[in-house]
Amino acid sequence: MAVINMEKVNKNLINEVIEAGKLVLGESVVSSIKACYQCGTCTGSCPSGRRTAYRTRKVLRKVLLGLDDVLDTDDIWYCTTCYTCYERCPRDVKITEIIKTLRNIAAKKGNMDLSHRKTASYVLRFGHAVPANKQVVELRGKLGLPAKSPTAQFSEKDLEEVRTLIKELEFDKLIAFDWEKMDLKE
Q: What is the total count of domains within the chain?
């Protein structure tokens, strides 16, 4: 069994997680972590954990123990937010929402996985994390739909609104987006 260095324990980590998540998710959602008794159902259910070193239970355990190195690891970025753990948890712990809250805290510290930053850059460029490509536009036409969907990607006005919000929230700075290059900074 691993020994915990008590000097590295952040006794307020669980409260920081609750505080960071309660504005959007509600305090009862993020404080549900306190009900976790480490049964392992989350890890056993996790499709990402079958293919990576990701162990949901380990992430929750670190939060419960106050080990804020969880914010510096890649582990929190392996979650695909499929909600399988959330749906199967016998204690109704809102695991996926807690993982997303941990990601937000980590991102504010400057720790965001590159693949997530790249996906976020699509929102700034196109208004969507998964923009319609040429094949989608063609398929829509074949299905009798307008070639361009009524989304921000195809509406300058809506795209500008998305970009204005992003700038006001300083999300562009969080992901290190270069507006001149319309891509991530190197």
A: 2
